[in-house]
Amino acid sequence: MQTDTEVPREGEICPPPRLPSVPAQKLYRSTMAVLAQVCDTLRMKTRRVHFVTDSKQWEALEKLSKKTGAPVSEILRRAVESYLKEQKEAK
Questions:
Q1: What is the extent of the structural domain holding 81?
Q2: Which of 28, 25, 24, 39 is nearest to 74 (CA)?
Q3: Cβ atoms < 10 Å from Cβ of 31
Q4: Residue 28 half-sphere exposure, CB side, CA atoms within 13 Å?
Q5: Within-domain flag for 2
């Protein structure tokens, strides 16, 4: 059995790294957004899609991403969800 400082021998499987325990309140907002996205993704079935934007739209999405800390993919998911909700209410 190896310790944390030993290099694995050939054929041995490396144990997963030990991550430091960090209180949630000390994590940055963007980190919390990414963690929330990962949790949401694991809970729901997802489908990968290809999305095309013009340069102005992409720049606006990147700017919003930097402002909110949410990844562009999460912003797009929220926008689609909002649109679908509006369409459902309009009927």
A1: 24-90
A2: 39
A3: 13
A4: 8
A5: no
**How crowded is residue 73: how many other Cβ atoms within 10 Å of its Cβ?**
15
In a domain, 13, yes or no: no
Residue for token digits 């290809």?
Answer: 50
> 15-25: per-residue pLDDT in tens?
655 655 655 55
Count of structural domains within the chain: 1
Q: Rounded to whole angstroms, how far apart are CA atoms 83 and 63?
A: 21
Positive or negative: CA dihedral 44, 48, 49, 50:
positive
- pLDDT per residue over 31-83, tens digit each? 666 767 676 666 666 677 888 899 999 999 999 999 999 899 889 989 999 99
